[in-house]
Each structure stands twice: as C-alpha cells, then as structure tokens.
Amino acid sequence: MDERIQSAIHNSSSSFSSGSGRVGRREVLRAGLTGFTGLALPGLYRLRAEAAAEREPQTAIILVWLRGGASHLETFDPKPEASSEFRGPYDAIDTNVPGMRIGELLPRLSKIADKYALLRSVAHDAGGHPAGSLRVLGGDLARADKPKPEFPDWMTVAHYVRRESGRALPNYVSINPVDRYDSFVIAGPGYLGPSYEPFKVTGDPSSPKFTVQNIGVKDPQQLKRIQDRVGLKEDFENLQRVVDATGLIDALDKYENQALSLLTSSKAGSAFDLTKEPDSVRDRYGRNQWGQQCLMARRLVEAGVEIIATEFDGPLCARPSNWDDHAVNNHVFQANKYRAPYFDQAVSALIEDVYQRNLDKRVMVIVTGEFGRTPRISYAASSGGGAASGSKGTKQPGRDHWPRANTMLFAGGGIQTGQVIGATDPRGEDPVSRRVTPHDFLATIYQHLGIDYRAYALEILNSRRIVLPKPGEPIPELRRVYS
Q1: CATH 3.40.720: which residues of the chain?
Q2: CATH class for domain 57-216+267-478?
Q3: CA end-to-end span of the chain
Q4: What is the tens place of the pLDDT at every residue in 399-440?
Q5: In whole angstroms, how far apart are CA 480 and each of 199, 323, 361, 450?
Q6: Which band of pLDDT confidence, cut at 50, 70 and 90, is reported for residue 104?
C-alpha cells in the first residue's frame, strides 16, 4: 500500500472528528486524492455528500476574452466620419443586417451579423488592466489595481452554484486561462477558495505536439497503476469506520470517480481531442491558436461543459502579445490589421458552428475585454521593433485605456440577435443611449445561467462577513426569448 495512504489512514482518527458530524474538506483532500494520485485534479469539483442526479445540459456560456482591451473603433463601433484626430485609416462596412456596420477588418463577421448582437454602451471607471478586468469579470467596485481578486469572477460563481452537476467532465474549463495580467491576478475564485478554480488547458492547440494534461490516459500500465490507487473502500477502511455516519465516503467515492473519469473515460478524452474533427472544420476555424481554442470550446460545450473561458493573446496579437495598443507597444492600426484575420475567422466560425449544431438556444458566446481604447489617437516613440511596431524610437500612433466606452458581442443564448444595443457619441468617447455597467453585464450572464445572484449573495453573507458587489440589472434586450 502507498506509504502516503497508510499515513493518512493511521492519522485518520486525529485528522477527522466524528463527534461534530463534520469533516473538514481540506483534511479530506489532503488525505484523499492529492495524497495518492498526485495529479492536482481535486480542485475541479465540489465535494458533496449528496448524490448529484444526471440531467440534461443547461444553459452555457463561452467567453472569448480580449486581454488588454480591444479598440471598439477598429472593431464593432467604427467612427469613419470623425475628424482625423479620432478616426483611423479603416472604413466601416455594411453587414447582412440593414443599418448595422462594423469595421472593415472583419469581413467574415459582417456576413453573419444576424447571428449576434452588439452592446455598444458599456462604461465604467476602472482604468487599469487589473482593476478593469476585476470590474468586468467579478463586479469589484475598486478603481485602483489590486494584486489579486477579492470577489470571485462570474465563471467561478457559476461553477460554485452548479457544483452538483454530477457529470464526468468539469463544468468550468479555461482554455488559455483567463487569469493574469503580468504580475496581477485578474480572475479567480476569490473568497470561495482554490477548489473552485477551472480545469485549465494551456499551450497551443494548433501545435502537432499539443496535449491536454491529466486527460484520457491510454497506456494500460499507467492506467492500472492509477486504478490500483483508487480503491477507496479497501484503502480507507479505518477512515470509513470513523466517518461513515456522515455520508462522506459516498461523496468521496463520487468525487474520486469524477477525477478518475477525466483520466480514463473515452468521453472526457474525446471532448478535448481536436484530431477527431475533420480537417475541413479545423481549417474553417483557422489552423492557429485562436481558431483551435474556439474549436475546443465548441467541442467542450457540445459535450456538456457549461462554463468555458478562452483568452485571445500571444503572438497573434502582434508585438505586445495582447490588445494593449499604446503607441509605445505597437502601431495601433497595423496591429489591428495584423490580428484581425485570425480573430475574424475564429469568432465567426465559432458563432456559425453554435447555430449549425443547434446549440444556439442554450449556448451564449460573449466576446469582450476589460475596456475600449481612447478615441483620440496618441503618438509616442516605439519601445522596440517587431510585428506591427516600428524600430525603437519610431514615432507611431496608438490608443490608450478607455473604460468610458466598450462594445461587447453576444451570440446565441436564445437572445434576439441582429441588433445593436446602445450607442456612443460621434467620436466614440461616451455612451449617449442605453449606458450599461459591468454589473448589468454580470446580471445578464447570471440570468442566462439561471442563477439567482441575490440568493447566492445571501448564502455567502450567512457564512462569511463579506460585502458583495451590488448586483446590476439584466439587460432586457439580451433576455432569452427562444428556448
């Protein structure tokens, strides 16, 4: 028997108290999976004493996060008639929805505008990347940057509330995780704790050598070694005598089976396996990191995963590896031209697939970053040459942080698509109609997921001395109308 298991059993009477009828989850995990698998999978699931019934897939969300904040003027809120201090070199183009125009760098998305809605009037006052991200993803009202979140992001809240999903696959997966901006943590479980972290997929899915760790073990010998270490009833007989009355062992069995399923089940392995897609489909998304991230997101949501976040950053973003288009980082207009084809292809393919595969009534796709960019063009010397940036010292245009206006894209989700909600002024500086806040955005997400945020807040307040962010109001134009 594994020495760590023997030690856990030997110490069970002192580590677990049966007198109170409660067992600390941290102690269970220390003596449980982490102790004898060493695979760091326990954080994927909420350990529950009650069995979770299998059910039909619920509503789901795929978030495409544009780290650094995309320019709304070069994407979904172009201002071609503004003066030269504001407008860029690109024009606006018609879409297949009369009256809806978007930036000319997005021709594929212009052809499917009837399948999404644009919210052009999101505004807040958190101007730093960390603060802006915490505001949009978790509702934190602080204007100053924080090293890490205090409040859980919406993905974690949904994971927490839906923790009894009872399925083999985790219900929250982050592909190229939405988690950091330089040394700052911009998303995470906050006070809910690390057990509600997502299952994280890292690396470039378009690489021939790409693999997802801890998924789909195929080696028979390795599989046997894992299974030999999962005999809960045999290996924890002494522990069971101490805590069996609490029903914990039954829950631990289910918890262990969920983690083991990721390693061994063909369903789990298949859901993450992009090689099962026809070449034509992989080509349609784009044989690059963003395209294959979106394809994996579609595969996972189709397999029943309910919360998926994927971040668009890295080499496809040009020199700064994100959307932070200050002039010192890159030439803002060259950078947008550089990244636009990858973005346009990946997002349009994802939206089309959601509709073609009849997922659009329950799956909502959201595309956004933490804020927009300054409508007034700034100029500064480049800090270094590279893709879409002149050599060091070259004076070039840029756009800076602008939380006062941002555009978000919503597709699927049973909402009324082919519409534009809100508007900014002729320069794109501030909303002039239907101004909404990140709190309204979060309330809209919770409404789609069927989460009563106020009830959740009461649950948290009853157990912790925490003041939660004030909830906003769901945006009525984005209410689910098709089921």
Answers
A1: 57-216+267-478
A2: alpha beta
A3: 53
A4: 999 999 999 999 999 999 999 999 999 999 999 999 999 999
A5: 28, 31, 8, 11
A6: very high
